[in-house]
Amino acid sequence: MFGLGVPELIAILALAILLFGSAFVKRMSRTLIDTVREAKNIKTEVQRGLLEEKNDE
């Protein structure tokens, strides 16, 4: 994941909590998770549509 190991990710998370507060970090992580989940759903829908289009030919 971008060449970052677990210790680096923990350090970044700790720094973010110190700078922005835990409520902000929690809200941003939920937003990021929702965005990734939506992107996966869109990818699945596009793949399904392409397969259906290919099968219709």
Task: Describe the 3D structure.
- The protein has 57 residues and is mainly alpha-helical.
- It has a domain at 21-57.
- Helices cover 88% and strands 0% of the residues.
- It is built from 2 helices and no strands.
- The chain has helices spanning 6-20, 22-56.
- It starts with 5 loop residues before the first helix and ends with a helix.
List keywords for this structure.
mainly alpha, 88% helix, 0% strand, 2 helices, 57 residues
**Topology order in helix (H) and strand (E) letters:** HH
> Which outline best applies?
elongated
Structural class estimated from helices and strands: mainly alpha
- Mean pLDDT metric: 90
Report the sheet-strand fraction: under 5%
Total beta-strand segments: 0
Round the Cα radius of gyration to an integer and report it. 18 Å
Write the layout of secondary structure elements.
Blueprint: H1 6-20, H2 22-56
In short:
By secondary structure, the protein is mostly helical.
